[in-house]
Amino acid sequence: MTEKYVYSFDEGDKSMKKLLGGKGANLAEMTTLGIPVPPGFTVTTEACAKYYELGQKYPEGVFEEVREHVKKVEEKMGAVLGGENPLLLSVRSGAAVSMPGMMDTVLNLGLNDKTVQNLIDKTGNERFALDSYRRFIQMFGDVVMGVAHHDFENALEKVKETKGVEFDTDLTAEDLREVISEYKKVVQESAGKMFPEDPFEQLKLSIDAVFSSWNNKRAITYRKLNDIKGLVGTAVNVQAMVFGNMGETSGTGVCFTRDPSTGENVFYGEYLMNAQGEDVVAGIRTPKPISQLEEVMPECYAQLVKIYQDLEKHYKDMQDMEFTIQDGVLYILQTRSGKRTAPAAVRMAVEMVDEGLIDKETALLRVDPNALNQLLHKQLDTIAKDKAEVIAKGLPASPGAAVGKIAFTAERAHEMAEAGETVVLVRTETSPEDIQGMNASQGILTSRGGMTSHAAVVARGMGKCCICGCSDAVIDESSKKLQIKDKTFTEGDWITMDGSAGEVFADKIPVKDPELSGSFGTLIGWADEFRTLKIRTNAETPHDSEVAKGFGAEGIGLCRTEHMFFEGDRVKAVREMILSEDVEGRKKALAKLLPMQKGDFKGIFEVMKGLPVTIRLLDPPLHEFLPHTDAEIKSLAEEMGVTFEKLKEKVDSLHELNPMLGHRGCRLVVTYPEIAEMQTRAIFEAACELAKDGQDIVPEVMIPLVGHMNEFVFNKKIVVETAEKVMEEQGTKLKYMVGTMIEVPRGALTADDIAKEAEFFSFGTNDLTQMTFGFSRDDVGSFVPEYVEQNILENDPFQALDQSGVGQLVKMAVEKGKSSRPDIKLGICGEHGGEPSSIDFCHRVGLDYVSCSPFRVPIARLAAAHAALKNK
Amino acid sequence: MTEKYVYSFDEGDKSMKKLLGGKGANLAEMTTLGIPVPPGFTVTTEACAKYYELGQKYPEGVFEEVREHVKKVEEKMGAVLGGENPLLLSVRSGAAVSMPGMMDTVLNLGLNDKTVQNLIDKTGNERFALDSYRRFIQMFGDVVMGVAHHDFENALEKVKETKGVEFDTDLTAEDLREVISEYKKVVQESAGKMFPEDPFEQLKLSIDAVFSSWNNKRAITYRKLNDIKGLVGTAVNVQAMVFGNMGETSGTGVCFTRDPSTGENVFYGEYLMNAQGEDVVAGIRTPKPISQLEEVMPECYAQLVKIYQDLEKHYKDMQDMEFTIQDGVLYILQTRSGKRTAPAAVRMAVEMVDEGLIDKETALLRVDPNALNQLLHKQLDTIAKDKAEVIAKGLPASPGAAVGKIAFTAERAHEMAEAGETVVLVRTETSPEDIQGMNASQGILTSRGGMTSHAAVVARGMGKCCICGCSDAVIDESSKKLQIKDKTFTEGDWITMDGSAGEVFADKIPVKDPELSGSFGTLIGWADEFRTLKIRTNAETPHDSEVAKGFGAEGIGLCRTEHMFFEGDRVKAVREMILSEDVEGRKKALAKLLPMQKGDFKGIFEVMKGLPVTIRLLDPPLHEFLPHTDAEIKSLAEEMGVTFEKLKEKVDSLHELNPMLGHRGCRLVVTYPEIAEMQTRAIFEAACELAKDGQDIVPEVMIPLVGHMNEFVFNKKIVVETAEKVMEEQGTKLKYMVGTMIEVPRGALTADDIAKEAEFFSFGTNDLTQMTFGFSRDDVGSFVPEYVEQNILENDPFQALDQSGVGQLVKMAVEKGKSSRPDIKLGICGEHGGEPSSIDFCHRVGLDYVSCSPFRVPIARLAAAHAALKNK
Predict the structure, then answer these.
(1) What's residue A1's pLDDT?
(2) Pairing status of strand B534-538 against strand B511-512
(3) How does pLDDT run across A522-580, given as a tens digit for each residue?
(4) Which of A247, B299, B597, B767 has the most CB atoms around its CB within 10 Å?
């Protein structure tokens, strides 16, 4: 018994994707549903697998099966391949997963010198028939016989030149005969073989070509890049051709069962009469709205409406359909789930639930969490934007739109904003000292730095538009000039940025506010019914906390206290501390900071009203608080009343070759315990005072950069002793937790030890990624783009968590942590906490929460629901 | 049935250390051997454990057992505790492992106002008896009753003042009676209790005190620091006192069964007649050589000789013994394995094998591999050194001695050496550009940097004396001045360094060459019979390779090609390459380097004659080859004929915030494949040419800094393609290997993937430690010393491999690597490859070889033998 390698469209259904490929299964499904699909058949993926098993030879009997199925198609169409009334075929590849890397399509198969005449005779349209023939030779020559595309183009051009015509459409039937003759010569010369006139030979070679394309380089690369595994081969779909260009009762069109850009539940699409599919796409003739078809061909239209309604009900999703009307007969050529904008996706998902078409789980899974980004930031007015010229492109570091007057320093940005201007901060790169100016600006544009540079990270945290690494922007901060190609901008000039696209525009473009439409709120509300991960936010001001809470944050996962040290006059006290010669001096300076820090924490606790707040003790190396150039040092020395030499010496002594791996985090506390004492005091005085007012505060104090249990123990002791002292002074007893960031590989490796003392872990995957890869995120710009281009890395690991490397450490730390402390609280506060694929990972390894910047909270809520649903 | 808690010395032996403690077991062993040991007994460690179980109370029956054993001692000594002929006792602690943190000793127990008189009567020596009594009160008051030592000192001083005497020994019997009376008052006042007159009360309290000292803070800390676990408590040894100060037929001494400083097989030691043990130690009277005892007390001497010979034969090791002669009767108070110098250890070990006393395994284990350091470098003449003044101390970064004239720049050092001077290079810190000058110098002194700074690492590699981080040395390179406290040195001044001690001297001190004595060679030869680890060396010149081979290196484990780029004029070509705008320019510059690199490799291959040579492709970031200050850039720009701006721009564009985590290693090759092409070509042209001369070369090409399999694949492809091309050109076919460093945590985590392509792994534990801890070894000076001091870290992890953190990654990579490629070749080339505890780890995880600097090769050979023997 030979196996069955070929299936008629009426023998399959959509469940047979693996065997028939996606396209074949859908064509079969529609056929079975009684939808008018041009008849055809599918050669299975197993035939393809067998073909490779046999060393690229047809399995026995396959082509005989093909011949039988061609006969059935001939019967259905009342036409014969190569016959008087010639049957023409299309041949398409189609794997179980859509793969643009493979051979696509051969159309009009079956034409030759004889059948083209039959076609002319039958249709009475000589030009149409000849043009179809020359297109077939070109397509077949290109994809089946490997003739270079431009060889055909050259031949065509030569004929056009001789005839003195400009457009293909101006070629007469006679001209086309000449083109056909030239094309055949091209095939002969280039492929060293005659163009095959026998239609079955054409079919055999085409199927052959589809099978071979399964293992061409593009297809292999595509499968590798998209991690497509477990497929045995591609199927081949052979289908009768129908023509929309056979006169005024023929036509073709594309339609959607709902509006793909708004999501509105209306029939949407366009068509052209007397045209082929490619004419709709090519844009030479302007297609008409689908509703007008009702007037032209009312019966076909009514049939189409019935079909679209049936198909949407059947597939329970918005469909993108292609149809052709041949001589008044409607054929559906394709149906598939349609692409849609983010607002449309949200609206359709919610409305389909209301309509009872789908359930909430399906609705949630229909919306890509990343796409929500579009809904969460100001946007440029689309129409105005389309008219404007993009003068430079950079990295889309933080989405949204910004329009403002240029400022070249953080101070000026602050001043201008205070004076009521809207400002865009333009700098080579930003540093922690620029925070205030960044906060005062609508957006930030830098010429250097990557997606995780200081500007990018801070801007995302602030939910502010930011474009980084815009290398076309030459910025001279001293002379206050921004040069972009031939355009020069000075302070106060207007500029517009689209952070989502990384595009820069001159002048002002109107901006729209984000629309948090009703559907959006509904959908995200549903997400909360399914997710098990809690969502927290990274915030260090009452304002950011408020915003995040509005977006649904259930606590603060990371409050970076160093950002507070730069505000206003505080940096002065910080510098005074750094320059102190002894503990007493440092304590005096820290005493000045205490009331301010306490105020910060009180503000945040009040906003969060009893939700958990994780506060990280000071993390950066101290030199970040000092200036670095001689000029800046000189000016600061004068301001502080110390000698230039003394300040310079301090700056030099704090200098580090690799500050990322230097004297920071919990290491600072070992040298300067008084810093942790002050910070702990501020936290607990704030919390105790609010507790007396009846608020329920459970501070979570987080020790950064722990790599060894003893470091944690040293730090924890100071925190606990200070906390107990403050609570005694205040006469209040609070619950509190002391835990650590896991961000140093050694911390993950020895998490079982650390968990003996730490009550929670929060994965600092930014630093963990830096150290696990050995990549400084400030410096990777010189090679990571090349890495992604060369496919050495699939993604920038600072954007999507590297699950196979860094993820191993996270998983290990989770397991080891739980082995020592089964109820340990586990979260993530790196940038990955707001990235959907990383959130899925966090769900799978069993974290309790993810924490992300305020504007990513809704994304994280949806992504967490996806994770819960996908990993049920 | 009550348990047995007390053992007479004649009831135990040396196998009972766990129960009787080390001291008790040895006393029992000697007793059993028939050696004259003053009688006594041991209260077991189990009694101590029970004591704690009961909440610091004596277990029932213990003191009754003690009383019985006291009776036996009384019988043996013919004296009675508290009696007419008073028995005096010593009480000492003694755990299974020696623990200086515990209570040590109470002597003369049993004295009180009555027995002191009996003692006077019996000995006729009033002063001796009274002095013993006052010493007892002081010791007992101090260690048992917690009276402060200085309270006794004050009382003593007061009496001495009143009497107008300077030395204790000048006090008369009458004076001593007054001291005793004062001492008792001190006890009463300070402890709030009377000094106990009852000898059994004294004994009970003393045993109590020993038990309590087991859990005092010092002892707990000591156990923690030395990782002493599993001990249940301390034993207490109670022994009859004997007196060497009872007249001219009494005496006391210390002796060794061989000379502990040379190892010569002679009886060695010193004694004093009419003296107590502490007199020998105190140095008030000069002891006499042991040989002279033969004349004074020939019988005792003969007995002592017999005993020392027996004891050495019995313990099969050189013994350090304490003896006392009381009234012509010899007693041995203690025997233990004696401390010895490195040369002595080696000589004894080898000679004892020759004598048939021990086997080779034991001999090898007797010598601490680290101690061999003393044998492998030039040393200062001990006598001259002892007379000289240490003017500054720094870190002992690389051992050995150096005497030379000061040079403040590498260029001057080179020039001076060329002119025939011996030079010491003195710099704030060194950089790769200084290599030539370092090579030309006898030693290197830096004011900054730690044990793994550039200067330290390179100097150790060169086997050159180096002192780093000598903060007392204020170096002004521009004015060519070295200031050490009040001394100023200028160029050409003589200076002497002891790199093993980190000591700096003014002027010249004579130097001795290392003595590679015959025993040393023999011992290391034996090591080779037992070790399974191969030993390779880190070397990049024919000279270093030669030295290492002389020391027994079996290949090169790490040849760092970047060091070659700094030699002579080469750096010019390197800079030309860096400044090139395009691939062509880079290739042109690289072509200039090719013949030089090829020469390097040829030289090394020729020395190594078929032994494996692992060559690492270029590792450091390119900016290391460019100057950094404006002045240097200006001068180089002139030299290269480019504008200052252009060079400055390049330097700025290559600048990295964290170069350690930057654009280096295999990442360079992704951007500039032509560098790897040139290096591979150089390796294979060299190897092919030698192969044609009949040499057997198997190059091992090593790709640095691999964190992802794709990086390795990218690099390997270039190496393989170039190698195949060169071999085809040369018409020669060589075996070769391509492998990688595992030095990035992600490399270890994904070693199974990488091993699919890599034929060998070499663990780069320097960088692996940096990234696993998040410690920049250039910057840890600001906190790691504090970490070690605060016991946060036991060791500097750059010296001894951190087995619990970094070691986990190594182990994981070994297992994963073998899972993909069972025959993968595994080695280590970080600095840890020459450190014994790390070598033991490497043996245990199953590496094939360790690679270390040439001068550590003998140490590694011995350490590898230790590892094999200890882990049998």
Answers:
(1) 42
(2) unpaired
(3) 999 999 999 999 999 999 999 899 989 989 999 999 999 988 888 777 888 999 999 99
(4) B767
Residues B111-125 have a mean pLDDT of 91
- A298 inside 8 A of chain B by CB: no
| Contact yes or no for A535/A854 (Cβ under 8 A) | no
Of the candidates A130, A244, A245, A145, the one whose C-alpha atom is nearest the C-alpha of residue A179 is A130
What pLDDT is stored for residue A478 in this prediction? Answer: 86
Q: What is the largest CA-CA distance in chain A?
A: 105
Give dist(CA A283, CA A839) in Å, integer: 42
**Residue A515, pLDDT score:** 58
What does DSSP say about strands A494-498 and A503-506: parallel, antiparallel, or unpaired?
antiparallel
pLDDT band at A353 (very low <50, low <70, confident <90, very high): very high
Q: Please give the structure tokens belonging to residue B540.
A: 């990049």
Contact A513, A378 (CB under 8 A): yes
- Which DSSP letter does residue A775 get? -
Instruction: Name the β-bridge partners of A289.
Output: A270
Contacts of A675 in chain B (CB under 8 A): none
Which amino acid belongs to residue A122? K
Nearest of A297, A299, A254 to residue A276 by alpha carbon: A254
Confidence of residue A124 (pLDDT cuts 50, 70, 90): confident
* Min Cα–Cα distance to chain A from B212, Å: 27
Burial class (CB in 10 A: 0-12, 13-18, 19+), A170: exposed
Q: What is the CA radius of gyration of chain B?
A: 33
Catalytic residue among A454, A563, A623, A866: A454
Cα–Cα distance, A592 to A577 (Å, whole number): 10
Which of the following is catalytic: B829, B843, B852, B866? B829
Give CA–CA dist B603/B242, Å, rounded: 70
Confidence (pLDDT) at A409: 92
Residues B699-705 have a mean pLDDT of 98
Phi, psi of A762 (to 5 degrees): -125, 120
Sign of CA dihedral A112, A114, A116, A118: negative
Q: Which chain A residues touch B804 with a CB distance below 8 Å?
A: 749-750
Give the pLDDT score at B460: 73
Share of chain A above pLDDT 90, in %: 68
Name B379's bridge partners. Answer: B512
List pLDDT tens digits, range A674-712.
Answer: 999 999 999 999 999 999 999 999 999 999 999 999 999
Q: How big is chain A, counted in residues?
A: 872
Q: Contact, B405 vs B422, CB < 8 A?
A: yes
Spatial CA neighbour of A334 closest among A628, A24, A574, A693: A24
pLDDT of residue A867: 97
- Out of A48, A559, A666, A829, the active site residue is A829
End-to-end alpha carbon distance in chain B: 42
Q: Which of B50, B46, B144 is nearest to B103 (CA)?
A: B144
CB B868 within 8 A of CB B844: no
The helix or strand, by DSSP H or E, that contains position A395, with its residue range, turns out to be strand A395-398
Minimum distance, in Å, between the CA of residue A488 and any CA atom of chain B: 22
pLDDT reading at B107 higher than 80: yes
CB A537 within 8 A of CB A852: yes
> Which chain A residues in 741-780 lie under 8 Å from chain B, judged by CB atoms?
743-746, 749-750, 767, 770-776, 778-779
Q: Which of residues 552-571 of B touch A (CB under 8 A)?
A: none
What is d(CA A162, CA B23) in angstroms, rounded to the nearest whole number?
114
Using CA atoms of B243, B249, B255, B261 in order, give the dihedral in degrees to the nearest 10.
120
B660/A657 CB distance under 8 A: yes
Q: Quick one: average pLDDT of A427-435? A: 85
- pLDDT-wise least confident of A449-458, A520-529, B186-195, B633-642: A449-458
Is the ipTM reported for this complex over the cut 0.90? no
Q: Are B378 and B400 in contact (CB under 8 A)?
A: yes
